[in-house]
Specification:
This protein is an alpha+beta fold and 139 residues long. Helix content is 40%, strand content 19%. Bound molecules: adenosine-5'-triphosphate and magnesium ion (MG).
Length: 139
């Protein structure tokens, strides 16, 4: 069993896509074991995306991520990190495979609707960034 952090980014929440994203997650067989809505401050978004602080898009990305409410979730399942990244599709929606969340809903390389952890170490950091032990409810 593996856990991963999912975010429905502010564009996805603003556009009314929470239900459609959650439906795909549940239908995939991944289990949502934690979920809440948050509105990150700029500083919280900078802390979350600290690995990208040298990238040219860091300022814009953290402005976007702190621009409105987002839904954060912990997903659990076998091979959950890779399975969820397959559901999301490539970072750039133009490169994303048919039937993926980003291909179907994203409008922009930055405003790409969802986030997913990319490795067990980043998943552990990201889950701890948003959830304490009492907020995670494995079945
Ligand atoms: P995420 O970490 O959000 O799941 P990812 O792992 O597919 O996405 P990263 O390379 O980690 O992609 O980039 C983090 C986020 O930064 C992207 O999801 C996107 O919102 C934004 N981003 C990435 N590359 C660019 C770019 N070239 N221009 C603008 N924004 C970008
Ligand atoms: Mg990433």
């Amino acid at each position: 069993m593996q856990r991963t952090l999912s975010i429905i980014k502010p564009d996805g929440v603003a556009r009314g896509l929470i239900g459609q994203v959650v439906k795909r997650l549940e239908e995939s067989g991944l289990t949502i074991i934690a979920m809440k809505m948050i509105h990150m401050t700029k500083a919280q978004a900078e802390g979350f995306y600290a690995v990208h602080r040298q990238r040219p898009f860091f300022g814009s990305l953290t402005d976007f991520m702190s621009s409105g409410p987002a839904v954060v979730m912990v997903l659990e399942g076998e091979n959950a990190i890779a399975r969820y990244r397959d559901l999301m599709g490539a970072t750039n929606y133009k490169d994303a495979a048919e039937g993926t969340i980003r291909r179907d809903f994203a409008t922009d390389i930055e405003k790409n609707v969802v986030h997913g952890s990319d490795a067990p170490e980043t998943a552990a950091f990201e889950m701890g960034y948003f959830f304490n032990a009492f907020e995670i409810t494995p079945r």
